[in-house]
Design brief:
Blueprint lengths: L2 H16 L10 H10 L5 H13 L5 H6 L2 H7 L6 H19 L3 H4 L5 H9 L5 H11 L9 H9 L9 H11 L4 H18 L12 H10 L1
Helix pairs in contact: 1-12, 1-13, 2-3, 2-9, 5-6, 8-9
The chain binds a DNA duplex (13 and 12 nucleotides) through α2, α3, α6, α9 and α10.
DNA sequence: TGCCAGGCCGGGT
DNA sequence: ACCCGGCATGGC
């Protein structure tokens, strides 16, 4: 069986099992980008609290976050953890967003995303996963997002090596899938859903994966 | 009750 | 080029 067919089968199984997930949770592309920074190594549940604090104060807008005092911002996003660092990272990103694109997502995402990705990685506090999340979920550009769940699940099932780099894992998916925004969007969401609901344990013997998913994996190896 | 969550940076080898 | 400590709240 080809890698390509394996991946597609896994995707179809997950999609059948969980149903369409319609990611990313967020009302606007700007909210998606803020969420992408706040969720770094943090559960989404905590991020929602921080985002709600910002919404409640009507601060979830580029210019508001551009002008707000960083210490005040830190207090508001406290529930999301690492709040001092994340306040600084949000400031860095919003400054970039305002000064390079006038706070316009249309301007920001006008290209194919290749140049933008490099610029995003130049913003202190934005690494490869956050950059790809921004590109895929806020900008609808076909960049596959790799996260801890992706690495854990796919290496545990021997589909990638345990110590592959971010880019090696990303290559594995991009090379073996059609470069399609909708597919990349839904696939990553399904992987996170799988990890969140039944596979959060780091125990390598974890056997709580959904039957449909396991069936596909064990059929191949 | 300790362990973990949708990473990333900076300093040290 | 890796490796590692630090960052921090809330849920189970």
């Amino acid at each position: 069986m080809q890698k390509r067919d394996i991946l597609l089968k896994i995707y179809n199984s997950l999609h059948d099992y969980f149903g369409p997930l319609n990611w990313w949770p967020g009302d606007t592309p700007f909210e998606v980008m803020v969420g992408a920074i706040l969720t770094q190594n943090t559960s989404w549940n905590n991020v929602e609290k921080a985002i709600n604090n910002l919404k409640k104060e009507n601060l979830l807008k580029p210019l508001k976050l551009y002008t707000i005092n960083q210490e005040e911002l830190a207090q508001l996003i406290k529930p999301s953890g690492y709040y001092n660092i994340k306040a600084r990272r949000l400031k860095n990103f919003v400054t970039f967003f305002i000064e390079d694109f006038e706070g316009s997502t249309e301007k920001m995402f006008s290209g194919d995303g290749g140049e933008l990705r490099k610029k995003l990685l130049n913003v202190n506090g934005i690494g490869p996963e956050t950059a790809d999340s921004v590109l895929l979920y806020a900008g609808r550009k076909p960049f596959f997002v790799v996260d801890a769940y992706t690495r854990r699940i796919f290496s545990r099932h021997k589909l990638i090596s345990k110590d592959s780099t971010y880019y090696e894992i990303q290559e594995f998916f991009i090379k073996n899938l059609d470069r399609d925004v909708k597919l990349f969007n839904e696939f990553h969401a399904q992987i996170v859903m799988l990890g969140k609901t039944i596979c959060t344990s780091r125990n390598p013997n974890c056997a709580k994966c959904p039957i449909a998913f396991l069936h596909v994996i064990y059929q191949m190896i």
